[in-house]
Structure formats: structure tokens, C-alpha cells
Sequence to fold (163 residues):
Amino acid sequence: MEDRYKSFMAIVIIGLFSSCASAPDVDGLNEKIETLQQQVADSYKPGFGEFMASVHVHHEKLWFAGTNANWPLADFEIHEIEEILDDLKQLHPERKETELLGMLDPVLDSVETAIEKQDTAMFRANYMLLTNTCNSCHVATEHGFVVIKTPDTPPFSGQVFLP
Ligand code: HEC
Fold:
């Protein structure tokens, strides 16, 4: 009985020591958190305007894909626009303009329907609506001087838009 008691105490004492040894180094952890926070703050985050510039490239490519009845490419381009808008929402939740981005959803859906139906006339009509919505938001956000239109030439000469 006494031996059992001794070994029990020994375990308790060892336990206490080891828990002291592994007690978290709070200062060290705080320092690490601060360093990580600084790294996140310093890491590169594209600005609202940079996201818009990428949207613009895909908006133009979308036109040449759709009007050439290159439906797989048109489908790809519209999803690129949607992905960029998702990233924009995630990385710029602080911008009041972000709240307005939802106005693009119904028109993007309409363009997507035209792509699914492989309907060029419907595509053209809905693309106009999409472009008008881009401009409506620019007006609403005091960027009415950024006027988007249907492109005349592809944004890059080095890509084939024919199916
Ligand atoms: C939620 C509102 C909103 C919508 C919708 C929107 N934009 Fe913008 N756009 C802005 C704002 C705000 C800016 C200015 C960004 C800044 O502060 O740098 C901008 C800037 C731009 C610019 C940059 C202009 C330049 O010369 O650098 C382009 C290009 C652009 N938008 C294209 C588009 C296209 C194409 C669409 C539609 C597919 C679109 N935008 C839809 C709000 C919007």
C-alpha cells in the first residue's frame, strides 16, 4: 500500500514538473502572432481596380468567344469573370462598392443561359445588358468616366477565338 502511494506521488510530481516545462511560452507565441499578422498585412493584395482590369480582359474575350460560337471558350471566360468577382468580394469586403457587385449576378446568369443554349442572338442581347450593368455601377460608384463598350478587336492578337 505504502509503495503504491509512493509511486502515485512520484507520478503526480513528475506530472507537475513536466506540465511546468511544457507551459506555453506566451510571450514567444504573442511575438509569433505579431510577426504573422505583419506578414499578412504586407502580403500582396490586388486593388479593386486591378480586379476590374482582369474582369475587363475576360469580358472582351467573352465577346469574341460568343460571337464566334466558340461555346466552350465562352463558358470558360464567363466563369473566369465569376471567379474574379468572388475573389474581389473576399479580398475587399471593406469597400462599399463590393456590396453592389451582386447587380451583375442576374445578367451573368442570362449570358450563361445563352451560352448553354448556344444561341448567338441571345448571347449578343445579354452581353449588351451585361456591359450596361458594368457602366451602371461605374456611374453609381462615381466612376462614370470608366465607360465599357462592346470591343471592336480582341484584347490580344495571339489567341484564336474561332472554335
Ligand atoms: C460594383 C460596381 C461595379 C461593377 C458591377 C463593375 N465595376 Fe468596374 N469599377 C468599379 C469601381 C468602383 C472601379 C474603380 C476601382 C478603383 O478604385 O480602382 C471600377 C473600375 C473599372 C475599370 C478600371 C478602369 C481603368 O481604366 O483602370 C475597368 C476596366 C472596369 N471597372 C471594368 C468593368 C467591367 C468590364 C465590368 C462589368 C463586367 C465592371 N467593371 C463592373 C465598380 C464596378
